[in-house]
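Predict structure. Chain length: 439.
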Amino acid sequence: MSHDLQGNVLTGASETGATQFAAALQQLSNYAGDPLAIAEQLIAAEPGFVMAHALKAWLYLLGTDAKAAQAAKGFIAEAEGLEANARERGHISAVRALADGRFHEASRIIEDVSAEHPRDLLALIGGHQLDFFTGSSRMLRDRISRAMPHWSARMPGYHAMLGMHAFGLEEMGDYAQAEAKGREALSLQRLDGWARHAIAHVMEMQGRHEDGIRFMRDDIEGWTKDSFFAVHNWWHLALYHLETGDETAVLELADGPITSVAQNQMLDLIDASALLWRLQLRGIDPGKARWQALVKRYEELWVPGYYAFNDLHAVMAFLGAGRQDLVEATLAAQGEAEADNIAFSADVGLPLMQGFIAFHKGDHVRAITLMRPVRNRAARFGGSHAQRDVIDLTLLEAALRGGDAALAQALAAERLQAKHESPLAALFARRAGLQHGAA
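Prediction complete.
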């Protein structure tokens, strides 16, 4: 009977297969390499290897790509017929729920798996991503906190535990401990893209943008080599430069590593949309050509109505490119949402899409009316604090441009308190007419 490196039984796996599975899991924990290729090779060689099927399904589904989710349903059905233990059946049930758009149910199922098997690294990684997709900051931290006593620095994959814990701590506002855990993770594995990303989030939330630039540029090879998460970390670097007013650096990153990837991933398109929209908010016109190139990439991959967080970012691109047909198609798809996306869209996604559309049209009063009630519950449709900051930025800009002085001053003061070192926060304060003493 074979086991993974953390001691979990692997039904249907040879010793060779278990070794290859460990290699794939190591790649996934670094967000680098090609773990999907390994999973597919394992399934071809050892079709009864249940966790190889589970790994393939997780890799298909964690990109929040509707087409990939549809494709996953077929091979998940094959896995459901395999002999498996309770832990493995939990994985298959979780990916089935996720493929069907039942994000919260998938999260609960895999939560039970990791509660009973706290050294199941794939269950923890999958669950951590689901907490991200559903905006559950507390579970981003606590799912990993529960398992930490069962791990030690001597165990393979411990760096990933530290990196995930770091991100959860950051999303809960425990910035000092988050940075410490993230740096400990990198000391064990410099290629851990998620751990580096957790520290990047800390610096973003604290307004330490010069620190962030130095940190990200200090070891570019470490977080870019063979990484399928590099675009998001490039996006963080671009945000730092945007905050400091270095427009040249931002555009170089936008035209380079953020949009020149060879293979489309939905998460990469989201980052590109958010960056170009933020540039536009700063009064820097990205130009219709950039938006049109991004829309072309969306059209190759995107299906509306699957996940409202993605749809909001798609709308940003469609507005920038002047594609009213795609804007209308996206809005229409919200009425056809299924499973958990019904609530994601109704509670948050649709009013934000409408608010962003109003902002783009110059109807700032309507934009404020639509976005303001949603702002404080926006976590319900997923993403991080840093990603959802585009909502705050758009609302603040709407208040400034729409002449709502009281709201503009309130939002600018709030931002300045959170990011007192940020040049952009100081700029907003000046534009809103805040006096230094009031800030």
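Summary: The chain has a mean pLDDT of 96.
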